[in-house]
Write a structure and sequence with these properties.
- This protein is of the alpha+beta class.
- The chain has a 4-stranded antiparallel β-sheet with strand order 2-3-1-4, with helices on one face.
- It has 2 helices and 4 strands, in the order βαββαβ.
- The chain has one domain (2-68): Alpha-Beta Plaits.
- Helix content is 30%, strand content 33%.
- The protein is globular, with a radius of gyration of 11 Å.
- A hairpin with a 6-residue loop joins β2 and β3 (42-47).
């Protein structure tokens, strides 16, 4: 199981709900969460063979940015 973290510019629950359909349909993603209280608005994605580029693209297509952490 892979765990990949991204710094995002998601600001609120409305932002999260906007990207939810895109993230839920990514191949290999089992679970994801966003920590809106963290200054980096960290998106944590758990799954098998999670495609980092696919996650970034999913956010970009919905008007948000993501950058892999670590």
């Amino acid at each position: 199981m892979d765990i990949v973290k991204f710094k995002t510019n998601l600001k609120c629950e409305g932002c999260v709900s906007k990207v939810t359909p895109a993230l839920n349909h990514l191949n290999g993603v089992k679970e994801w969460t966003v920590d809106l209280k963290d200054t980096d608005r960290t998106l944590t994605v758990t799954g098998d063979g999670v495609g980092e580029a696919a996650v970034i693209k999913a956010l970009l297509q919905n008007g948000y940015k993501a950058e892999k952490m670590g």
